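Thanks for the sequence, V.! I ran ABC transporter permease right away. Repeating your input here for the record:
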Amino acid sequence: MAAPRSFLWSRRIFLTLLTGFVLLPVYVMVSSSLKPLEDVSGKFQWIPSGLTLRPYFDIWETVPLADYFVNSVVVAGIATVCSVTIAVFAAYAVSRYSFRGKRVFTVTVLSTQMFPGILFLLPLFLIYVNIGNATGIALFGSRGGLILTYLTFSLPFSVWMLIGYFDAVPRDLDEAAKVDGCGPLGALFRVIVPAAVPGIVAVAVYAFMTAWGEVLFASVMTNDTTRTLAVGLQGYATQNDVYWNQVMAASLVVSVPVVAGFLLLQRYLVTGLTAGAVK
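Predicted structure:
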């Protein structure tokens, strides 16, 4: 049965308005990044009177954006790899084995998502400072300390998500792998992990995006040499002025890795988000 014409037109109008609402901030960012500072500081003009690429060159000189970029890539990349690796083993154990405290473990992992991150900020700060004073290991103000911090909230979610993905993989595959001579680790890496690739990719994307754009912990747990991009963008605001055109240009540059990664992994991400929903 064909849909009424009124419904089709209503859907087109709604989707057009929704698309415009989504693309409007992007247009403002792009147009502002191509304007001189005096044009951005004044009344906003929908159609720029003059365009320049100078802000895209100045962003690397106003603040050490390249250093912040390297810090973000290192921290987000290592945090993602560690989170996914640990979560794979933990989720496999919970999904395939029965042990004492299994239910308590899963409930505890899920309950960690109920607390806001700011509750852990002061305890982690004190722990890092005390560890540094007692052992000389500088966790506060280092990349390693920030990576451990990100694992505290990305790892529980990763474990919980992968448990659902692994539960969706038929246990008959495990039995077939054992018949072929595989042990538990062989079954995991030869059967379970290949079958759950979309789910693992979805978890990896979540962990990376969370670490890439995190501001609260990065603003406290880093210093001038370990600062990440999310915090480094504040450097374009000085006591005398705010370089709005450079802020917009830097924001677009920072978004490129995340958008590119999402487009490349989109098919895995969409499949992974629904892989554990139906068993």
